[in-house]
Request: fold
Amino acid sequence: MSNAPTPGPLTLLAPAKLNRLLHITGRREDGYHTLQTLFQLVDLTDSITLTLRDDGEITLSKPVEGVPFDDNLMVRAARKLYPYRRDSRLGVTLAIDKCLPMGGGLGGGSSNAATVLLGLNRLWGLGLSNERLADIGLALGADVPVFVHGHSAWAEGVGERLTPVTLDTPWFVVIHPGVSVSTPAIFQDPELTRASRPITMARALQGGAATWRNDCEDTVKKRYPPIACALEWLEQFAPARVTGTGACLFATFANEDAARSVADQAGQRYKTWVARGLNTSPLHDALGR
Reply:
């Protein structure tokens, strides 16, 4: 890959993820939890446009509502790459067409950060490997590396130890029940299951979706009754599960028609999407081209 800056602008899709399985296996001395999870990418996306600047500045085309500039993960990701520039005049204007809900458990912020890392690597001609970008991204959030690598994955540790996997690619109905979940509150809840026995990736995959669970789900349902109600509603049609710590939940369907039929009904109550499972990221497909 050429290390010369790309004129741009560069428009890239930042996909969501679902945690199809999430086991909490322990708690480290630093307070972080160890886990095992299956990340599956889906074709729900934000769209981010990066436009090259020659004044060394990082700017947003417009503020993201409710997110201070210095806290914006896109801005923080761009700043992480400042030391790797060969020319201090290299800057960027970032624009986002936001679809993924903030705090929904779909990884939107982490995906946005990963997209900026990969996009600026191309735009500024940095020539960094995905492994290096994933290491940089881990400081921004445990979910950033899976989006940097751009493949559905089995994850361990705090979510950073990744093994690419090829999962089935069903259709999903994804529901946001209209509440905001505090991830720290879920992980600090004394009743959270923290002692799931670790299993191998092979055993998890062999067991299949019927055996998968989310250890956060009982705690989330207890703290957020609207999520419990949405899960109960969706369970009428197919087994439903929270992704991450929520607030979003999902169910799988064998075909698009079945998913859209349920989504049409859900849409009368909740913010709802129909999504197709992916194994490779559309961001990587675009950069590969």
